[in-house]
Amino acid sequence: MTGDTGVSSPETSEYKFRVVMLGEERVGKTSLIRRFTENRFEEEYKQTLGTTFSTKDTKLLDGNGTKRLVRLVVWDMGGTATYRELRRQYMRGAAGGVIVYDVTRPETFMAMNRWFEVFRNTCPNAPVVVCANKVDLVDQRMVPVEPGHMLRDWFQADYFETSAKTGERVADVFKRLARRILMQTLDKTPSPLM
């Protein structure tokens, strides 16, 4: 495979895309990745120091109904200000981004525009998914659905309400992002001559 956003060859239909997880600390970025890649959840919080990554292969249908094997390399980036410059370096060349907030903490929602701007300035054409996480905490929810829909429209992004704990809609986030990146990549790839 060639690079983080490239194609190995038209015959194999294998693609590898690097995506980044962004958002304030403790919004559940690591838990979402772990749920998607390992189908597990850990109750105990462990701060992400710097950056880590996980991979997962998934099969997707392209616009013509052809199955394509896609490997997502998901970079988990610490949400504290300490890692600001490191995040920018790892964002460069990313094929897509997931920006996460915690529905029980309005301040994480209020920071979404900053995260979006940083990502958009670094990766101007990469698709974005907005992820409203921790929806299983119904009694503690402070950010309703409507502001999330406003972000979706403003960022021109997909929007999902997720729970890393229960697994609700987690796979949908990554599969939707992978499909958007795949379609964008296929649109840019010249067709073979007949």
Q: Secondary-structure map with pairings?
A:
Blueprint lengths: L13 E9 L6 H10 L12 E11 L5 E11 L6 H8 L4 E7 L3 H5 L1 H11 L5 E6 L11 H11 L2 E4 L8 H19 L6
Parallel strand pairs: 1-3, 1-4, 4-5, 5-6
Antiparallel strand pairs: 2-3
Short description:
This protein has a single domain (14-188), classed as Rossmann fold (3-Layer(aba) Sandwich), CATH 3.40.50. Helix content is 33%, strand content 25%.
Structure description:
The chain has a single domain (14-188), classed as Rossmann fold (3-Layer(aba) Sandwich). It has helices spanning 29-38, 84-91, 106-110, 112-122, 145-155, 170-188, and strands at residues 14-22, 51-61, 67-77, 96-102, 128-133, 158-161. The chain has six helices and six strands, in the order βαββαβααβαβα. The two termini are 24 Å apart. 36% of the residues are buried. Strand 2 and strand 3 form a beta hairpin. Strands 2-3-1-4-5-6 form a six-stranded mixed sheet, with helices on both faces.
Number of helices: 6
Q: Give Rg in angstroms.
A: 16 Å
Query: What is the CATH topology assignment?
Result: Rossmann fold
| CATH H-tier superfamily | P-loop containing nucleotide triphosphate hydrolases
Order of strands across the widest beta sheet? 2-3-1-4-5-6
Strand-pairing-aware structural class: alpha/beta
Range of helix content: 25-40%
**Ends apart, CA distance between termini:** 24 Å
CATH class: Alpha Beta
Order of helices and strands: EHEEHEHHEHEH
Beta fraction of the residues?
Answer: 15-25%
Largest sheet: 6 strands, mixed
Silhouette: globular
Count of the separate structural domains: 1
The CATH architecture can be given as 3-Layer(aba) Sandwich
Q: Mean pLDDT, nearest integer?
A: 87
Tally of strands = 6
Low-confidence stretches: 7-12
